[in-house]
């Protein structure tokens, strides 16, 4: 018996392969140009109607995620997805969820947090109070990692942490400070490698299969929606974390975000980027000194 569902899915994937060149070639130049136009129109509509601007995101990543959403919506083309997105906000939100990358964990890249403890904490000790911005905070694990680190260094009562993301749903998760209990073993290892000073289990309680972090860790954190592409600076910060966000942006958008961070950092402020990111080829390269090249920690000097 013919399986209609399987047949439809096969047809969708075959169509996608025409555009991707999965059948052995890259498709015709006309097909590639048509697809680029369709994607540009889709992203323009998403921006004009809903305010989400992905027009300067790296094209290969955007294209791949758009086709993922086309398959998921059981559509046949980028234009078909555009029509649905423009008339169905829930579809637009699903597409935005696909386009925004959410990868995080407690003490992700433990060596970064160890370096932060060694190189940045002594600078923060000299301040009566300080503000930290976690830009693109996702579900908040790294925000609470920072809160724990500052607590252990006796500095948390001086801090105000602003944690922002484009996606409201992940912010709701972050505000709840509740994560799968099964991840705590891995997070404990990260915490120890990052130079943790206490028992990591002392910072959360178990409720069923969920680990809920103690409320005091959230007392000095403000979670808010902020779009790095379209929104402006909203405060002056002593530290900005933005790790592995700009790798999905093209050079134009990367420079735009670096403008935003430079404007938002106070004199001698600290910028922390992801391992694959750099300020080297931006117009602000001469405005920072390097505190840790491997961990991508920079200090604003002008």
UniProtKB/TrEMBL annotation:
InterPro entries: Bact_Chemotaxis_MeTrfase, CheR_C, CheR_MeTrfase, CheR_N, SAM-dependent_MTases_sf. It holds the Pfam family CheR. Residues 46-302 form the CheR-type methyltransferase domain. It comes from the Bacteria. SUPFAM superfamilies: Chemotaxis receptor methyltransferase CheR, N-terminal domain, S-adenosyl-L-methionine-dependent methyltransferases. GO terms for molecular function: S-adenosylmethionine-dependent methyltransferase activity. This is Chemotaxis protein CheR. It comes from Paenibacillus elgii.
